[in-house]
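Troubleshooting: if your tokenizer reports a length mismatch, compare your output against this known-good record of 155 residues.
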Amino acid sequence: LDRYNCMNAYTELINWLVALLNSDIDVNTVTEGSEIDRIDISKKSIYPLAHIDADDVTFNTNLYTFAVSVQVLDQVDYNNEIKTDKLYNNDNRVDVYNTSLQSLRRLFSELKLNKRIVVDGEPSVQKVSDKKNNIIGWQMNLSIQVPNDIMSICQ
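Known-good structure output:
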């Protein structure tokens, strides 16, 4: 049997999201799971970071529906030069918010093109800010449907 045909819907979903995020020009690292705290966020080389979390799922005979959140985060860098510009301050916050939002927009656009893994409805997107670790970005929450036809091939 072909190993792909025996994968479950969760694995298929995560593999697809990881592949899309790894192909994004503005993402250096992709992680998965509810324990984002276990990632060594002090390493500058991992940013921008995309983090996937698929916590909740409902299913019927033919379909899984996952509640998925994807965060795209980066560290705030401070410029030592004194600036008088009140909007942009001495950091890259505006650039980080813009870049991370665009990464999520590209992910959503790619997901909408897929015929097998289907986005159900429109996403909601919220700003993320971890002041303790100096990390900011956006989180996109969406409902994704994956068909339940692959497990029957394995039987």
